[in-house]
Design a protein that fits this description.
The chain is α+β, with helices and mostly antiparallel strands. It is built from six helices and eleven strands. This is Class 3 adenylate cyclase.
Length: 249
């Protein structure tokens, strides 16, 4: 079609607030302001200029297309950890209702920058599906002390973990992202920053034989003298053992 724009390959990052719809009007206003402040400060910490980002906001979230010279190692390896650090410092002395927790996703691919009401391109759709994936929501919900859950596409994970000084493979767990209503299924690598997602899976798996041996329904764990039904918590960061809405399966 004449005049149709040419797509460009860019790194894309998305962020979404957990539990935003449950907040009252004034709380939503404060959450929005803090959300933008954290993104701005984290970008500065990572040596990124937010003024050069092309963003699409939704009140409780944002999708951003980054400049051509910005690579994924800077975004996932420095920007996302900076967001986590800022949120942890904000949240550490606040009650649960006042804490700010985010789901984040990083992807890359071709995107049109001249869309009439957004960013046309399969890569941006893919990013949005990762950001809203049930498995990412479950991962964040499973760790009461966490501030950020991150999903990255396989190509981002591969590049990051092979880069010297990049993210470590053991910080991630591979998951299938499925959104049946949208006809979307893809693999992604999930990390809950500051938490060992693979250790939690191992602990859950170790508890399973006791459940099967007792004939009890899922959710009962017998460890030593402790007989517990439901989730229980272990460790300094309040790591819940047991399945929380399917995490881990």
């Amino acid at each position: 079609m004449e005049g149709e724009g040419v797509p460009v390959r860019r790194v894309q990052v998305g962020a979404d607030l957990e539990g935003y719809s449950k907040l009252r009007n004034r709380e939503q206003r404060r959450a929005q302001a803090l959300f933008q402040h954290v993104l701005q400060a984290a970008a500065a910490d990572a040596g990124l200029d937010r003024g050069e980002w092309i963003t699409q906001s939704s009140g409780d979230g944002e999708i951003a297309i980054l400049p051509a010279e910005v690579d994924e190692t800077r975004v996932a390896g420095r920007f996302v950890p900076a967001v986590d650090g800022l949120l942890r410092r904000h949240d550490e002395r606040r009650p649960a209702r006042e804490r700010l927790r985010l789901r984040m996703a990083v992807h890359q691919g071709l995107v049109h920058l001249d869309g009439a009401s957004g960013f046309p391109g399969e890569a941006v759709v893919h990013l949005a599906r990762l950001l809203d994936a049930p498995v990412l929501k479950q991962a964040l919900a499973a760790y009461a002390g966490a501030s950020v859950a991150l999903a990255v596409s396989p190509e981002i994970y591969r590049d990051l973990c092979s880069y010297p000084g990049g993210l470590r493979p053991e910080w991630f767990r591979e998951e299938t992202v499925s959104v049946p209503a949208k006809g979307f299924t893809a693999q992604a690598w999930i990390s809950v920053l500051g938490e060992d997602v693979n250790e939690r899976a191992r602990l859950s798996a170790e508890a399973t034989p006791d459940v099967l041996a007792t004939g009890e329904k899922d959710g009962r764990y017998v460890t030593g003298d402790v007989d517990n039904t439901g989730q229980w918590v272990q460790g300094d960061h309040g790591m819940a053992i047991g399945t929380i809405q399917g995490w881990p399966r």
